[in-house]
Automatic annotation (TrEMBL), chain A:
CDD domains: HPT. The gene is LOC111277917. This is Histidine-containing phosphotransfer protein. InterPro entries: AHP1-5/YPD1 (IPR045871), HPT_dom_sf (IPR036641), Sig_transdc_His_kin_Hpt_dom (IPR008207). It comes from Durio zibethinus (Durian). Pfam families: Hpt.
Automatic annotation (TrEMBL), chain B:
Transcriptional activator that binds specific DNA sequence. Residues 189-199 have a biased composition (Basic and acidic residues). It comes from Durio zibethinus (Durian). This is Two-component response regulator. Keywords: Activator, Cytokinin signaling pathway, DNA-binding, Nucleus, Phosphoprotein, Transcription, Transcription regulation, Two-component regulatory system. NCBIfam families: myb_SHAQKYF. The modification 4-aspartylphosphate is found at residue 70. Residues 143-202 are annotated as: Disordered. GO terms for molecular function: DNA binding; DNA-binding transcription factor activity. Belongs to the ARR family. Type-B subfamily. It is found in: Nucleus. SMART domains: REC.
Length: 149, 635
């Protein structure tokens, strides 16, 4: 595929991510922060997000497996997850976190477990999509093109 | 944790190069914040640990201009960090969180945060955070040096627009900003180095009792609605008085009237709430007085200068003591009032002030200038106050301010960030009933200080009027983001001298209300004072601003006050909001001069008063313009 085609593909893909609610305008802000001084900013931040989120998800899984669930702990992790997902614009993940927190407040284990599943699901979706997008970008760069905004 | 420091040679290009310390345990957010801040051309240092942040800050107190911190952190609660920073370093702190619950935001405010941002944070928001640094600097300076630079007349037209907006927080901010600019121009003697020095100084007009009396007479003659500066000027027939002077004075007067009516309203509520007319005491609740003031000053931020503009003396005078109660408008951010007391060098002064302050008991509590006073009125009274105040800081930063119900209401009106400070451990709670009407806010840094004075019998009674705690709570929420908290305990408090107060009894509430207006940077108190002053003026100068507290007679002013100023009991009070001009006391500019920065609430008040005296010299005159008469007249 030539550069122009790749670029078009990228733009379409990105647009679809916004339309489907995987990303919101916060992600656009991230992109705007990337410049020559900071050429890999988006990838950096998103990678951090992935690492961090996986840690939180693991902690959440452990916490909810306990006999006696420590909701404060659960809430703390969900809160963090919510904060970081909102910071990078992972909208769907953020929304599930909001529901998740409500269940925590109600101390509803079932609800929490369900949300945990949902969060994991949304997270893996957005992760896959972003990784695909990055790959596309990389292809463009390799082909000598520039990333369209 | 990444620590990067770029030597900034751009101090002069402020806000470029402003040194920010960012603390957040979430690496994603931290990186984002770091990048955003750099994009704003700030000099950024980041850390994911609160403890590290403290170390950095303690290492060199002048290393940073501003701190941004997350609320939820594993090693230390963000609020705790906030308090510590405020206390130790007196830096503006901005809280950051994904959780925007009102309660949390309020907590931030009471702990002294100068702003609360929600994640995800946007660059537009960060682009304006430098205002907190400037505001703090400016108000601090004002407090100390600004005894005369803020001339009412100066503010006159310039502030006209601003003044009109006092009522709203948002506007308040703007006003404050305008005020700031205005003040900047006039503060060259303050050594502001980042503002244009004022190029011209107009001679300050002192609104003496006599002058004010003429003014009021002229206004009455014309009718408040038809009173225009030009005509008033003609009627007054005073040499060297300009139309601008009159115009700005008129503005203040109008605001005062509004406030009075509001206060009256509040009083009514309060009285109702309290159920008994007698012995209402004004509680001086200084919410973190200093802190609050600080915050008050900020437009939407906690105003710093709120108190500054009070002419503490005026109001306090009434209290019989220079209620240095936390009048200091400049509380360092987040400083606990109590700690201020300790720290401030004026402690000594404060003490004396406090004492005197306490004494009045009878007189009048009306002066509630919303100074942030530590509630330890009791103590003060016995001269222990001072000591006590000194002890306050030891408390855990929670000051409970007994707030009378009405205060709260008043407070609520347009208070911007004056969270009520609840001094817990030191328990200003005079009454034993802790918390009762006190806004118990931990680290109420920015709480509004309500001064509750207890009339009548001795200050030792500073019982807090125990307004329904709900009131407090409610007001608390109101306070949130409110510019000035007016803690006026008006009315009932003035009961101390039943006879004296009888007539004005009704008015008294107003008065006190007005007086107690919270100290928002705008010192509505000033305005109130003025108003009161006016009233009183007609009757007698009850209030002498400078320490003539004792000479203040019964609040006659109350009467005229109520008559004149009772404009409808609309509760839209925002008049109590102390706008930058320190309206309450009719003081145009922040009374910074007399508010030593770290004096504890009471101390502050006292010192403020003292300072005022010193600065002003004669009671009746005052550059505070309004102050002068407000004080005079205030009972």
């Amino acid at each position: 595929m030539d550069v122009v085609q790749l670029q078009r593909q990228l733009v379409d893909y990105r647009t679809s991510l916004y339309h489907e609610g995987f990303l919101d305008e916060q992600f656009t802000q991230l992109q705007e922060l990337q410049d020559e001084n900071n050429p890999h900013f988006v990838v950096e931040v998103v990678s951090l997000f992935f690492e961090d989120s996986e840690r939180h998800l693991n902690e959440l899984t452990t916490a909810l497996e306990q006999q006696s669930v420590d909701f404060r702990r659960v809430d703390a992790h969900v809160h963090q997850l919510k904060g970081s997902s909102s910071s990078i614009g992972a909208q769907r993940v953020q929304q599930v976190c909001i529901a998740f927190r409500n269940y925590c407040e109600e101390q509803n284990v079932e609800g929490c477990l369900e949300c945990l599943q949902q969060v994991k699901h949304e997270y893996s979706l957005v992760k896959t999509k972003l990784e695909s997008m990055f790959q596309l970008e990389q292809q463009i760069l390799t082909a000598g093109g520039s990333i369209p905004m | 944790m990444t620590v990067e420091r770029v030597i900034s040679e751009t101090k002069d290009q402020f806000p470029i190069g402003m040194r920010v310390l960012a603390v957040d345990d979430d690496p994603t957010c931290l990186l984002l914040l770091d990048t955003l801040l750099r994009r704003c051309q700030y000099n950024v240092t980041t850390t994911s640990q609160a403890i590290t942040a403290l170390k950095l800050l303690r290492g060199n107190k002048n290393k940073f201009d501003l701190v941004i911190s997350d609320v939820h952190m594993p090693d230390m609660d963000g609020f705790k960090l906030l308090e510590l920073v405020g206390l130790e370093m007196d830096l503006p702190v901005i809280m950051l969180s994904a959780n925007g619950d009102t309660k949390l935001v309020m907590k931030g405010i009471t702990h002294g945060a100068c702003d609360y941002l929600l994640k995800p944070v946007r660059i537009e928001e960060l682009q304006n955070i430098w205002q907190h640094v400037v505001r703090r600097k400016k108000f601090d300076q004002n407090d100390w040096y600004n005894s005369g630079s803020q001339d009412k007349p100066h503010m006159g037209s310039g502030e006209a627009a601003g003044i009109g907006k006092v009522d709203q927080n948002g506007k308040l901010n703007k006003k404050r900003k305008d005020q700031n600019e205005d003040e900047d121009e006039e503060c060259d003697e303050n050594g502001h180095d980042n503002e244009d020095p004022s190029t011209q100084k107009k001679p300050r007009v002192v609104w003496s009792v006599e002058l004010h009396r003429k003014f009021v007479a002229a206004v009455n003659q014309l009718g408040i609605d038809k009173a225009v500066p030009k005509k008033i000027l003609e009627l007054m027939n005073v040499e060297k008085l300009t139309r601008e002077n009159v115009a700005s004075h008129l503005q203040k007067f109008r605001l005062y009237l509004k406030r009075i009516s509001y206060v009256a309203n509040q009083q009514a509520h309060m009285v109702a709430a309290l159920g008994s007319a007698d012995s209402t005491y004004l509680r001086m609740g200084s919410l973190n007085g200093l802190g609050d003031f600080h915050r008050l000053a900020g437009s939407d931020q906690l105003p710093n200068a709120g108190f500054r503009s009070f002419p503490p003396s005026g109001v306090l005078g009434r209290l019989n003591t220079p209620a240095g109660l936390g009048i200091h408008g400049l509380p360092s951010p987040g400083m606990i009032q109590l700690s201020h007391v300790q720290n401030s060098g004026n402690a000594g002064n404060d003490q004396s002030k406090l004492q005197s302050f306490v004494i009045p008991g009878n007189h009048n509590a009306n002066i509630l200038l919303g100074m942030p006073m530590s509630l330890e009125l009791d103590q003060l009274q016995n001269n222990k106050g001072v000591r006590h105040i000194g002890e306050l800081p030891t408390a855990d930063n929670t000051t409970v301010f007994p707030v009378s119900g009405s205060l709260i209401d008043a407070r609520v009106a347009g208070c911007s960030n004056n969270p009520l400070l609840g001094v817990t451990s030191n328990s200003l709670m005079l009454e034993g009933s802790s918390h009762q009407a006190i806004l118990h806010a931990t680290n109420l840094r920015d709480s509004v200080s309500t001064m509750v004075f207890q009339n009548g019998n001795t200050l030792s009674d500073f019982n807090c009027i125990a307004p329904a705690s709900n009131q407090l709570r409610d007001s608390k929420s109101n306070l949130q983001g409110q510019a000035s908290l007016i803690s006026c305990n008006a009315g009932p408090i003035i009961r101390s001298d039943p006879q004296e107060w009888n007539a004005p009894r009704k008015d008294a509430p107003y008065q006190s209300n007005i007086m107690c207006c919270s100290i928002n940077s705008s010192i509505p108190v000033n305005g109130a004072m003025v108003q009161l002053g006016q009233c009183l003026d007609q009757n007698n100068p009850v209030f002498h601003r400078n320490m003539d507290l004792d000479s203040i007679g019964p609040p006659n002013f109350v009467d005229p006050l109520s008559i004149k100023h009772n404009k409808g009991e609309s509760s839209a009070m925002e008049p109590l909001v102390i706008d930058k001009e320190g309206y309450l006391i009719v003081q145009q500019r922040p009374q910074g001069s007399y508010i030593p920065d770290n004096i504890g609430p009471l101390g502050d008040l006292a010192s403020a008063i003292m300072k005022q005296d010193q600065d002003k010299g004669k009671p009746a005159d005052g550059d505070f313009g309004c102050n002068a008469y407000s004080l005079r007249n205030c009972i």
